[in-house]
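Milestone 3.1: sequence recovery, worked example.
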């Protein structure tokens, strides 16, 4: 019999709340107060997220404010992502969950197979990028310019960016599948030495990353992408996903984390 996990589909929310919700769920799972969870979500307004150790100086705060975009620092590593026109997933499980056990790359590989099946169900011919050794683009500030090990690519272009965090209470992996829109918009919110450098970064991003619509030639709506992800995680990982909601305790903790961490410059601008 398949293991039962919780499925959370939450309404579009600000970046600080999205990150706080993932961490609140992780804490509750670590204490045995919640079961492993697949959460699917979106962002409103658009939000620039920074990796855990990424310098805040990468952000052009004035340009960000002009566009009405948020900024948040993720608990996971990696580089900047502009979250808009996408579906975001998070997998949150206890430390002893077999599907996320082993090394980071081993668990990445297992979860990547599910992601691969999901995007193939949407009609894309994709593959998983194998581990090819050291990443020589480590200082690049834009996540979608660089494909890391076990991420999903199509026609050599990055399609899904993911990052993972491990703590004593469990594992959190989240990632973004861009559905439509201009991926190069992120360069409008980052610092560059001059406008020529900004334009060059935008061109590189178009050459190295893509969206579902750009690949297929037609739009895939959010609900269809969500359905594909649910099907693929159930089929590939041997799960039964049961629709649920955040508990009152998880909601309260998420609200607390928004106030004290994710919406606070002491966290967002700490580096």
């Amino acid at each position: 019999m398949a293991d039962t996990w919780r499925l959370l589909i939450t309404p579009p929310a600000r970046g600080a709340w999205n990150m706080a919700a993932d961490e609140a769920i992780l804490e509750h799972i670590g204490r045995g107060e919640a079961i492993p969870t697949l959460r699917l979500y979106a962002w409103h307004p658009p939000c620039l997220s920074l990796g855990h150790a990424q310098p805040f100086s990468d952000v052009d705060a004035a340009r960000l404010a002009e566009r009405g975009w948020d900024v948040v620092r993720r608990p996971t590593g990696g580089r900047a992502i502009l979250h808009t026109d996408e579906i975001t997933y998070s997998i949150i499980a206890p430390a002893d969950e077999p599907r996320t056990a082993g090394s980071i790359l081993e668990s990445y590989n297992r979860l990547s197979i599910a992601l691969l099946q999901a995007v193939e169900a949407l009609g894309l011919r994709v593959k998983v990028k194998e581990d090819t050794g050291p990443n020589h683009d480590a200082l690049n500030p834009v996540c979608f310019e660089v494909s890391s090990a076990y991420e999903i690519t199509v026609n050599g272009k990055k399609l899904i960016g993911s990052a993972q965090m491990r703590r004593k209470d469990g594992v959190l992996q989240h990632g973004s599948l861009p559905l439509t829109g201009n991926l190069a918009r992120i360069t409008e919110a980052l610092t560059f030495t001059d406008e020529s450098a900004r334009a060059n970064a935008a061109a590189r991003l178009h050459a190295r990353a893509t969206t579902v619509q750009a690949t297929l030639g037609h739009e895939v709506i959010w609900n269809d992408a969500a359905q594909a992800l649910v099907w693929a995680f159930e089929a590939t990982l041997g799960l039964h996903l049961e629709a649920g909601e955040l508990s009152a305790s998880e909601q309260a903790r998420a609200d607390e984390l928004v106030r004290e961490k994710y919406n606070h410059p002491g966290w967002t601008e700490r580096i």
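Residues 132-139, 143-147 have pLDDT under 50 and may be disordered. The chain has eight helices and eleven strands.
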